[in-house]
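hi!! sorry for the late reply, been swamped w classes. u asked for the two structures so here they r. pasted raw, havent cleaned anything up. first the sequence of the first protein and right below it the tokens
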Amino acid sequence: MPDKPCCRYTLPGGLQCQESDMGTGFCFWHDKKFDNSGLELTQKLERDAKKGGLLQGLELKRANLAGLNLIKQDNEEGFDLSYSNFYRANLTGAHLFNNKIAHASMMKANLYEASLHCCNLQHTNLLGIKLNNTRIDNIDIGDQLLQEQLAKSASSNHDHEAAHALYQESEEIYRNLRKASEQQGLFELAGNFTFKELRMRHQ
């Protein structure tokens, strides 16, 4: 009997997912058309992480990931969740210490009482992310937000309407990060975000 075909998901560097194709060309984790609304995937994702599964490019929009614990003990590098889609995912109480969630989307994700401590969030969409009581010390969002980069690109292409909208989104994200920093007593970080928030307002 022939082996089941593998998922077609391939990372920008060329690495391909080795999970089985569900019949759509993709595995459970990489199928953009699969509706995860409300599915409780915390334990399933933790099991896959422990067995060394590919955690990049995961399609987890609207998934219930409450209490997710993805921490690599005694390891300088955390898990790599880059290129993943956490749009409106429930990450309440999630422990994501030191993970890389770059080039991803966390748009409107709920991170109430979660930990993003030391997470790499560069080039990730953070618009509308819910950060109530969320630990955000030492997060790395890079020198510019994703929206800032897109705004500068739109401006250089003389699309001033798009640039203005993207700068407004950037201002909103920095405001959100500033408030979360103040709530956590991270006043130096809050000051940095305040400066960037005001700069976006005057673009």
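now the second protein. again sequence first, tokens right under
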Amino acid sequence: MDITYQSIAVILRRLERQFGGKMVEAVSLDGIPRDMKSAVALAHKKDDRLRKEFEKWAVLTYTNNRSVINDKKGADAGIDARAYFKTTKRDNAKIIFQVKSGGVNRGDIATLRGDMGREEADMAVLITLEDPSSPMVKEAKAAGQFKHADMGRNYDKISIVTIREIVEDGRRLEIPMSEEVLKAAKQLESDAGQLDMLDH
């Protein structure tokens, strides 16, 4: 039992590694959004900690629990999570995520493009509770495409995903993720956190 979706995601990853995907599908989870009504309720909680759980749930669900949640506050506060995906057998690239529960507009996409540059990320995803406007979609498409040589296909550099698509259509991130890179990223964040504690 655990109250945070981030902790639940860790357990689900461990179960999947040990027993496979079918085991994870058989696990019954209570207290997480399963429809739009419950997703909206979680997103609009007045408690900041519970609103953060909405962001974690959205990203981890969309990435099948294969992203690293950003718990830091500061210059990169706009980035809610990061993940790493395979580009070749030996190379990986970064994808960043931002979750919005309301008030989205074209400027959010422009900001995300700037965040990609700062983060040296090859791709970005905006997960939104609201449907995107036409200018938002146009701005995202203007970012161009990432050519994935190993997969033999192109992906939009900036994708817009709605909570409705995640909940009702089962939309998930399609890019092959690197579990080993995810572990390494988690270790780096853990080491950085320990160094921060030593500095204080």
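hope this helps!! also noticed smth abt the second:
The radius of gyration is 17 Å.
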